[in-house]
Amino acid sequence: MKIKILTFHAELNYGANLQAYALKAFLSSKGHDVSFINYKRKQKYSKLLLFVISIIGKSPGSPYSKFKRNLVELKSDFQKEKIFKKFQNEYLPQTTGTYHSLKQLKKTPPEADMYIVGSDQIWSPKIVLECDMPVYFLNFGHEIIKRISYAASSGGEVFSNDMQAVALDSLSKFDQLGAREDSLVFYLTRIGLAKAEWTPDPTFLINWKEHLNLNAENKRKKVSKFILAKGNQERGVILESLACSLDSFSDLEKLDMKGINFSPFDWIRAISKSKLLITDSYHAVLFALFTHTPFLFLKWGKGFNRDERILSLLKRLELNQLAVDGTTIASTTEASLMTIDWSFVDERIISMGDVGKTFLSRALK
Fold first, then answer.
1. What is the enclosing helix (H) or strand (E) of 255?
2. Any idea which UniProt keywords this protein has (predicted)?
3. How many Å apart are CA 282 and CA 181, to the nearest integer?
4. Do 151 and 12 belong to one domain?
5. Quick one: pLDDT band at residue 220, thresholds 50, 70, 90?
6. Which of 113, 143, 253, 296 yields a CA-CA distance of 20 to 30 A from 30?
């Protein structure tokens, strides 16, 4: 079967690239011809405007010091882009043409037997502009092409009234609807899309330890904390404070990921080799789980719906206590880092992966 996937496969983001890779790898292993629709979605702000805002904004420092700091970050971004482009060219094949609008997709739609939209926050109103949302509802291509969503996410948000009507009309034509968060399944069901069901992130479809030949020996060779600050500078300070408050890990050296540009696979290996991960990244937590790396997740708190995806996951794994919201760690939380039942976690991960595989197997019949 010829399958075209629409997701955020070309982002400079580890999670976005690895979830795209995992879905493609699983489908290809079943003998299907898989590639990604090369769609360039519209951005709310240009990189140049964001650069200017970062200099004149309210962050600490003089305009000159912020200019120098942002130039360093800009250089790092260019290096990161080079690394990611190499990964994408090797593992994430794209359609020959690049699409920039729904009109172009309707005029010359990608040839396929099936379209898959997802995973990632492809239905998030905070990320995808309303003018682009119908693209991610797959409102293009011949009607005989099968359409499904897999582990789609809205980032915990709901559609506007106008967009909800478009979503209901478009998604009702899908053969199957898979959503990554329970809250999205509930929302889609409430607006009349009863076929919606929960599906795990595509990264659950792969045994990563076998896939990348990771093993327990690596952890004994590396004694470092792995600190990944996904948010702003202030959250980086909080992550640092959390690391310093852990008595059981006080003798470990720190590996701060900010400014280090790994390839996506080496990013996984870095997590695998670490004795501890402290992060506010969803996919970093997933790969900590896959590689048996103890971790703490720093919650984003009130006003940030992004916590729901990780909290619902940790609830399924009975690891709720590893999501923290401040600079102090309860002694029971620190103790639980040392006693994670990895056999139980593995069983749940396999079970969750089986849900995704069953969902896709039904769609591929």
1. strand 253-256
2. Transferase
3. 12
4. yes
5. very low
6. 143
Q: For the chain, how many residues are written?
A: 365
> Cis ω on the peptide bond leading into residue 119 (within 30° of 0)?
yes
**Which structural domain, as residue segments, surrounds residue 248?**
211-346
Q: How far apart are CA 342 and CA 284, in angstroms?
A: 17
Q: What is the 3-state secondary structure (H, E, C) of 164-218?
A: HHHHHHHHCCCCEEEECCHHHHHHHHHCCCCCEEECCCHHHHCCHHHHCCCCCHH
Q: What is the pLDDT of residue 232?
A: 63
Predicted pLDDT of residue 8? 95
The CATH number of residue 132's host domain is 3.40.50.11720
pTM of the predicted model as reported, rounded to 2 decimal places: 0.87
The owner of tokens 């099936």 is 114
Give mean pLDDT, residues 237-242: 74
* pLDDT tens-digit series, residues 76-117: 678 889 999 999 999 999 998 899 999 999 999 999 999 999
**What is the DSSP pairing of strand 176-179 with strand 196-198?**
parallel
What is the per-residue pLDDT for 143? 95
In a domain, 55, yes or no: no
Question: What strand order describes the sheet that includes 2-6?
Answer: 33-36, 2-6, 114-117, 146-152, 176-179, 196-198
Do 35 and 5 meet the contact criterion of CB atoms below 8 Å apart? Answer: yes
- Distance CA(56)–CA(67), nearest Å, equals 9
Q: Does residue 354 belong to any structural domain of this protein?
A: no
**End-to-end alpha carbon distance in the chain:** 10
The string of pLDDT tens digits covering residues 133-173 is 999 999 999 999 999 999 999 988 899 999 999 999 999 99
Residue 117's DSSP bridge partners are: 6, 149
| Residues 6+ positions from 319 with CB-CB distance below 8 Å | 336, 340, 345
- Under 8 Å between Cβ of 146 and 113: yes
Rounded Cα distance, 255 and 257, in Å: 6
Tell me how far apart the alpha carbons of residues 110 and 336 are, in angstroms, rounded to a whole number: 49
